[in-house]
Each structure stands twice: as C-alpha cells, then as structure tokens.
Design a protein that fits this description.
With 129 residues, the protein is mostly helical. The chain is built from one helix and no strands.
Length: 129
Amino acid sequence: AELQSAVQEVRASGSDDLNCTTTRLAGRIEEVRAELTTGVDDCVAELQQHEERLVRAETTQGETLALLREVDERFQEQLALLQSDTSKRLESLEDKAVRLEADGRGRTEQAVSQVKSATEERVTRLEAA
C-alpha cells in the first residue's frame, strides 16, 4: 500500500511537472512565434521601403534621362544655328576681304600711276630747264 501510494504520488508529481513543462513550452512557443511574426513583418516592411525607393530612383532616372535628351536636342539646335551663323559671317568676311584686296589693288595702281605721271612731269620740267 505504501509502495502504491508512493507510485501514485510520483505519478501525480510527474504529471504536475509534465503539465508545468508543457505549459511553459506552449508559452515559449507562442513567444517565439510572436518574435518571428514581428521579425517577418519588419522584414516585409523594410523590403517595401526598398521597393518604394527603387521605384522613386527609377522614376528619377527616367526623368533625368528625359531632361538630358531635351537638353541635348536644344544643344544640337543651338549648335546648328551657330554653325550656320558662323558660316554666313565667314562668307561675308571673305567677300569683304576680296573687295578690300581689289580696292587696295586699284588704289595702289592709281597711286603708282599718279606718282609715275608726276615723276614724268618733273623729268620733263627738269629737262626743259
């Protein structure tokens, strides 16, 4: 009887210990589950933030490329206008240079002719004197 009572007592004690252990394990499982859920939620939130940043960066990159294309088009237009204007000015300067050269040649020939005439007059006067 004593032995049977001792066995029942050990069984009851073991059962209580088992119940306590099971309860503690269940509580710890819930804590770990909550921690994991929080961790996963945090990771998901962080990934969403990164995705939003990437979308903004891609949008900004697209806008920047569009602006660069627009600036390049304007630059090409301005360059074409500048080249055209420069060509016209160069042509005009070349025309003026040709006219000035011809005018200078004509004036030089006229001056040479006048000097020649004046020299011949002096020679004639000197010979007459």
